[in-house]
Predict the 3D structure of the following.
Amino acid sequence: MNTPGGFNWPDALSEFDERRARARRLGGERRVARQKDQGRYTIRERIDAVSDSFSEIGEFAVFEEYDALGNRIGTLPASYVCGLARVDGRPVALGGEDFTVRAGAPQSYLDRMKGGMGGFVEDLAHEYKIPLMMFVEGIGGDVAAQEDKGHAYLTSSLSWTRSFELLDEVPVLTMVSGAAVGASAARAVASHFSVMTKDSVIFAGGPPLVKRALGIDIDKHELGGGPAATGCGAVDNLARDEDDAMAQMRAVLSYLPQNVWQLPQRTACDDPVDRRAPELLEIIPENRRQAYRATKVIKAVVDEGSFFEIGSRWGKSLATGLARIDGMPIGVLASNPQHLGGALDAAASEKQVRLMNLCNTFHLPVLYFVDVPGFMVGPQAERANVMRWGVRAIRSVVEATVPIITVQVRKAYGLAVSATANPDRLGLRLAWPSGEWGDLPIEGGVEAAYRREIEAAEDPERMRAEIEARMHSLVDPWRTVEAFGVEHMIDPRETREVVASFLDAGQGALAAAVSPAGQDRRRRR
Amino acid sequence: MNEIAADCAATVWKVVAAPGDQVREGDVLLILESMKMEIPIEAEDDGVVAEIHVGVGAVVADGDLLVTLEG
């Protein structure tokens, strides 16, 4: 039918089918096949796998391909897919690069970016105050972008504001599968939780750049493979494969609220809150030289199956993660005596700061199992700046906005203990009879403090032994308990019940923190 | 093949397993000493001990190979 201007509904609607089909072809059969051969999903497969439903935005944006002479070859879908998804029933802003189109390069060819660095998907998260989940796979900026613009640009003309704003508003979770280089690497790292598959790589600059800059040859996996990046904490967690990575993102999301103005959701709990944990008496060896696995202690106390470890591959003298107690999401810290005797080095201190930031942001109370001989000593520790990071760890506890409950499992010596509880807040410390604490462990302390007496004695060995025996009688934890120098002593088997009771009562304080008055107070701090 | 390496500086205090031993996940293979603590090195999976790379008294650094398991 002829209408003025030639518009008719049937023709107009037929456009959809054709354009949708083109969008589904991504970068074309060959490139999609290569993606699969290399063991990776396409961006559409990832979105499909992680979400219950997906309402795409920008589906029909295209990238126009030109040859070297400037002739238009054709169009490909734009190199980013994004939209509003429902993940485990929750609205989430979801997006990721399409690596089959121009290696996921930034969409500087569009009037508006879809995502990758700011862009629609981040604006969506910001305006609706919903979590942002991103599948990062991109080579960052590339010289072709200059061609799009017709001139070189200063990177500082690109805005990062939205991306950082979001970190104070909503959960930002990222997955890296494939390569995340330069700007893409930075985007993946600017998150509350990041996970990468073991075969992926992430770095500021790849092997060719490293060769030009430093003259060295290095394999990309050695430079920034999964084990390397999670081994230093650039990325939080390692995943076997993409399915595992996505499961981890969904797990982390389950402990967090939609945004900072809401509390994390308390779920129903099958695990009885009064469950005694007799296994703790087996886990903590009577021989104080024997280590144990920190995560075993955590798992005995928190809701069964609820512990999710974050950063297990770095800062190993401290285990950190998320868990639930009687359905209430919490952050967990636990000294790990298996590594450096549980001493806090720079890395473990940094890991503590990271977990504390997450908990403060999303209103998760913190449970800290302490067994720390002190800050780590020695040239390696000092050169890694254990002092500055140690002070930051202390600060993270002093400035915590959430309740912290501390369990004195075993050792607690020296200044590191200041990073485990705050005397100017409630400072609820629950000691176990296995607890031992002081300025310095007896062995080193006696040598230092009584050196003259020991050297002057007729029998130095005996003198030292006598002094040590006297000191040992003073360090009986019950003496500190009697002086109310520690708030309570409990049977370890009751820890779950006691902690649950206090956490439950503390929920009111969390609610006060997200109330309008609470927000004002927080802003004024 | 499953390689177990030290993850911090330590001394080998006790060697518990021997090449050819059938081990299960969690079995202690050897015990290191570091920071005045005994650190048990456990098998991460079921398998057979192929080789123990260190002896009692050996000083190991972060990343040094301790045990290789098969299967």
Observations:
- Chain B is about 0% helix and 55% strand.
